[in-house]
Amino acid sequence: MTATPAYDALATTWTRLHRLGHLQSIAGWDQSANMPPKGNEARAAAMAEMAALLHGIVTDPALAARLQAAEAEPLDEPRRANLREMRRRWRAANVLPTDLVERQQMATARCEHAWRTQREANDWAGLVPKLKEVVALAREEAALLSDTLGVSRYEALMDRYEPGLTTAQVDRVFGELRQWLPGLIRKVVERQSRETVLVPQGPFARDAQRRLCEETMRLLGFDFDAGRLDVSTHPFCGGVPEDVRLTTRFRDDEFLGSLMGTVHETGHARYEQNLPREWLGQPLAEARSMAIHESQSLSFEMQLGCHPGFVAGMAPRIAAAFGEQPAFAPANLQKLLTRVKPGFIRVDADEVSYPAHVILRYEIERPLVEGEIEVEDIPALWDAKMAELLGVDTRGNFKDGPMQDVHWPLGLIGYFPCYSLGAMYAAQWFAAMRRGMPDLDARIAAGELAPVFDWLRDNIWTQASRWSTDELARRASGEVLNPAHFRAHLEARYLG
Amino acid sequence: MTATPAYDALATTWTRLHRLGHLQSIAGWDQSANMPPKGNEARAAAMAEMAALLHGIVTDPALAARLQAAEAEPLDEPRRANLREMRRRWRAANVLPTDLVERQQMATARCEHAWRTQREANDWAGLVPKLKEVVALAREEAALLSDTLGVSRYEALMDRYEPGLTTAQVDRVFGELRQWLPGLIRKVVERQSRETVLVPQGPFARDAQRRLCEETMRLLGFDFDAGRLDVSTHPFCGGVPEDVRLTTRFRDDEFLGSLMGTVHETGHARYEQNLPREWLGQPLAEARSMAIHESQSLSFEMQLGCHPGFVAGMAPRIAAAFGEQPAFAPANLQKLLTRVKPGFIRVDADEVSYPAHVILRYEIERPLVEGEIEVEDIPALWDAKMAELLGVDTRGNFKDGPMQDVHWPLGLIGYFPCYSLGAMYAAQWFAAMRRGMPDLDARIAAGELAPVFDWLRDNIWTQASRWSTDELARRASGEVLNPAHFRAHLEARYLG
Question: Which of B43, B120, B234, B237 could disulfide-link to B265, CB 3.0 to 4.6 Å?
Answer without folding.
Answer: B237
